[in-house]
Amino acid sequence: MLTVAGASGAAALAGCVGGGSEDGTFVNAYTGNPADLHFNTSGVQNYRWPAGRSVFAPFLKYSFGEDEFILGALDDLQVEEQEVTLTFRDDLKWDDGDDWTTDDLDVQLELAEMSGSSLWGYLEDYEIVDDRTARLILSGPTNPRILKFELTNFFVDTKADVHEQFLDQDVSEFLQWAWEDPVASGPFSFVSKDEQAFEFEQNPEFYNADNVNIETFMIERYGGNTAQHQALISGTDADAAPSLFAPPDIVDQFPDHVVEVQIPAKWGYGIVFNHDDPHFGQRAVRQAVAHVINRQSLVDNAGPRSKFVTPSPCGIAPKDQEYWLDDWQGDFETYGADESQTDEATQLLEDAGYTLDGGTWQDSSGDSIGGDYYSPGGWTDWTSMSETVVHQLNDFGFDFSVSTRPTNDWFNQYSNSNFAMGSLYWLPGGSRSSFPYFPLRYQLWEEEIGGGHNYREKAQSEQTIPGRDGGEMSLTPLDVVDQIARQPTDEEARPYVQEAAWHNHIELPFLGLVSKHEQSWVTDDEWSIADEDSPNRQVKWPQFWWPHEGELQYDG
Fold this sequence. Notes:
By secondary structure, the chain is α+β, with helices and mostly antiparallel strands. Helix content is about 30%, strand content about 25%. It contains 18 helices and 25 strands. The strands form nine sheets. It has a four-stranded mixed β-sheet. It has a four-stranded antiparallel β-sheet with strand order 4-5-7-6, covered by helices on one side. Strands 11, 12, 14 and 23 form a four-stranded antiparallel β-sheet that branches. Helix 9 packs antiparallel against helix 12 (about 380-395), helix 14 (about 435-445) packs antiparallel against helix 16 and helix 16 (about 475-485) runs antiparallel to helix 17 (about 490-505). InterPro entries: SBP_5 (IPR039424), SBP_5_dom (IPR000914).
């Protein structure tokens, strides 16, 4: 890909002459308007990970293929019963020439506590040992894997002299801060952004700078999946697409040099309910929705090549349920994975006082169940699944209409609690979702929309729900989930996982419908890429981690 950048910066993209470039420019196709996005990783509403992963070095990464953790900015990581010792690389620097020190980490950890990071769910305190070493003091025994998974979500993204201003402000000021000109610690430095693209260049201060021969790294805005498909089919418009659903008929049109990398997503299509809504605040209505939706039909309509249903909507990633639920699994309600259980749904609504009038379910005041069902524009597979969901629900007697919105607006509807029910991913994604604590807590708390689904108060209150033995079970959901993180082994964590999952599948704070393998795409006609047996092959995400390791290089 040859990019000609003029006075207008990243917007002046022209002269495409083939998949690859003589000047070592690498172009990622992506959906979203860069002008609206920023680099404050805690301001999740308008932060987008591709730009952040271009400029910030990760603490460590997880290889799905090898089931192992790989160090990034960390030089060593020791997890003991009551403490975690973090030792950072001696050559870790910022791209403005300043050395990284634990003064930066000190501010990062303080801001993480202020903003409610899940790390502090099992962290009692921390201490700075020296310029490169810190010790996290745990509040109790903790499963080592959960701590490592948590740390895969941390990046060298906090510079003390930039971020310390927020330590004395209300946390809302920090969470709403749009960091437009980041100081980089990773492979690339920020150059510019506009409505067309992010532009980055090599960061000479990066500790693995010798691995990087990509001179210019671009994240270009495309209108959605279809536009990205065409860019890869043409062979002239893009070198990669970090996360792009492509059905078999489209894959067949890709040139041979477009390589698919499938990675377990631990992410997928689901439904978020507004628990303050007069209808969806009722457990019976949420369960009725679960019974009506035929999850297999969503997969069939939107992508059986990469997608699969969840056996039971219970807050745990589908392929992890058997291991964690163990002998409890057979007692979980499936809600009909491959059928629409309308009889069960009818009974639930009638018992809750609803009547079917003129083909529409209404409450005692004559109000129908429905509204706008939000879905992200440009995500073609999600559009297909949203249309399938709404069709099934409306056939049953609900009154929904699909409302596709730009991604930022889609998030805003949920952050502002301006919705009744809509599509949203039900797993937080990435390696951390391999451990049930993260998805179970995500569904209760949902930091990414600021708790806009209004379940946080319920999560912190004692609830009584039907028990597995036919009686009743009383629990405080968030307390049970937080106990998962405090257990030193999987065996000791399992009873808490089972109890939290049981609550989840009855209460349905979210409704998990579909998960998938991520389809990530990269071209190898003018780029060398990671071998299939490389431990880096199945690390999220290839386009951002492979340059870190020297396994994505220009060969043109």
